[in-house]
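It would be a great kindness if you could assist me with a short task in structural biology. A protein sequence and the structure tokens that stand for its backbone fold form the material at issue. I should value your view on which stretches of the chain appear to form regular backbone elements. The record follows directly beneath this note.
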Amino acid sequence: MAEFAVHIRASEEIDPQEAEQLLEPYVIEHEEVSYGTEAIPDTEGQGFAPERSCLLVDGVELLADIYTDLQSHPNVAQVILGGPGSERFPVPVQHYALQQLEYPDLYEYHALDGKVTLVIAESQMEAEKVRDDVPAAALGYSHSPF
């Protein structure tokens, strides 16, 4: 297990062999990053999960860098945080919605930029509570497939 898991769905327009290489630079460049074996299900219209679609990451700073980089990658259709292989569960939340959290002291926070903060929960149940507390429009993604 790693501190965090990051899953991607590749854009429908990308070649499957090219999609397999999307996460490779992170594994090569960072000792704290490895491939995970867990796969996410494909979802109609949201890209596809290449065979290597999961990264296991230790360290919130590195997670934030990888998440931000993948969010802006033209061949990545979706980035999902948490799920199998993860010990902690980050949820991207727009800053304006942080005041909606019922129990803010339960979480750790890491600002990504001037608009989004990762709210880091210690369990999948706590992450679901974050998703329930804030409006869907304020989430980095509407739900977790796990």
User: Anything to note?
Assistant: The CA atoms of residues 24 and 35 lie 9 Å apart.
